[in-house]
Amino acid sequence: MKNGILATILLFAAVPVQAQDEGPPPADTSQDIEALASAFGEMFPAEPLTPEQEARLPMAQAVVAHIFPPGTYARMMDEMMGPTMDSILGSMAQIPVAQLAAIAGMEQSQVAAMGEAKLGEVMAIVDPAYERRNAVASDVMMEMMGDVMKRIEPSYREGLARAYAVRFEPSDLAELDRFFQTPVGGRYAAESMLIYADPQVMSAMNEVMPAVLEMMPAMMEQMQQRMADLPEPRKMSDLSDAELQRLSELLGVPAADLRANAAEVEAAESEDAGDGV
After folding, report:
1. Inter-CA distances, 149 with 7, 38, 53, 210, Å
2. Cβ neighbours around 145 below 10 Å, total
3. Can you list the positions of beta strands (E) in the chain?
4. Could you say which residues form the signal peptide (predicted)?
């Protein structure tokens, strides 16, 4: 759950500036959104509970009621996203660098290198309301994310209870319930989820991105080494007539179009390689 919330924060933190950089979404994006939502909905299939696990589900629900009472998800989002958004809204991350680069005829890297102070002065001229615009976007995002959290929290709570029913025996669940009914147990249960939103914990996440970036070259090298013995993806010209016909049927695209499209892609790749891209 904690990783899911963090990913949500990183995803939605970029929304205010994207709202400035991009125009209105195309009218035909609803199908894409539905397809994406469906794909996410199928990412984590769960096995049905066994009769034994079903029998201890009520005990698991009682335990989860201690550690994840109503409103916990929303409180976590508030505690984690609030400070994050405050920090982002006051940073260069919310300056529409792409727009400024287009206006000035400069590279985005050149604009970014100007620094926050100078860019802030530029924005005061170009868009005096940009800070308020960011704040509005942030407010709307937080309000709507809060609504989402309220809507999905019951399902999450039920999933958590099912996980406890799978992972713990009845004796374990009974002991946990007794502990959570003690003063210290009750306090721990109430804080066990929220503590992951504590600034002391979140500040440790500052080390994650530098560590990941430092690791990337070695990771890419290892990938290349381990893939060295794998064959290259096949080209359309490598396919038999039967394979091409089956591919055409699967994709719903005429075989001739597949060959033509592949030829265009290969030509573009060759041109890019010749340009040193």
Report:
1. 14, 19, 27, 30
2. 18
3. none
4. 1-19
